[in-house]
Amino acid sequence: MDWLTKGYAAWPMMIAPVLMLLLLIKERELIRDPRRGANFSQVIKIVSCLFLLPNAFAAIGYNLLAVVSVLSSLTILVADRHFKKQARA
Fold it and tell me: What one-character DSSP code corresponds to residue 65?
């Protein structure tokens, strides 16, 4: 078990919110249409919240690069609301 380090768990956990943010930006038209994208929006927000706390601990204890993941998770939560407000207007 010497080969199993913290990095094997930490790096995928830190990369996932960044990839989700890119997916959110790419599929923003889907979020603006509530009939088609309601489930997509909810899934992205829930997963982002699930990654927020572990990445905050990773930023404190493992690597400061996890701050990027924390900011990505927060951006997902804010951008989703912004996209929905644009759709209503």
Answer: T
Per-residue exposure over 7-46, b if at least 16 CB sit within 10 Å of its own CB, e if not: eeebbebbebbeebbeebeeebebbbeeeebeebbeebbe
At 44-73, the pLDDT tens digits run 888 888 888 888 888 888 777 788 888 988
**HSE-up (13 A, CA, CB side) for residue 23:** 15
Closest CA to 85 of 41, 50, 19, 53: 41
Contacts with 67 (C-beta within 8 Å, 6 or more apart), sequence order: 59
pTM for the whole structure: 0.75
45, 14 Cβ separation under 8 angstroms:
no
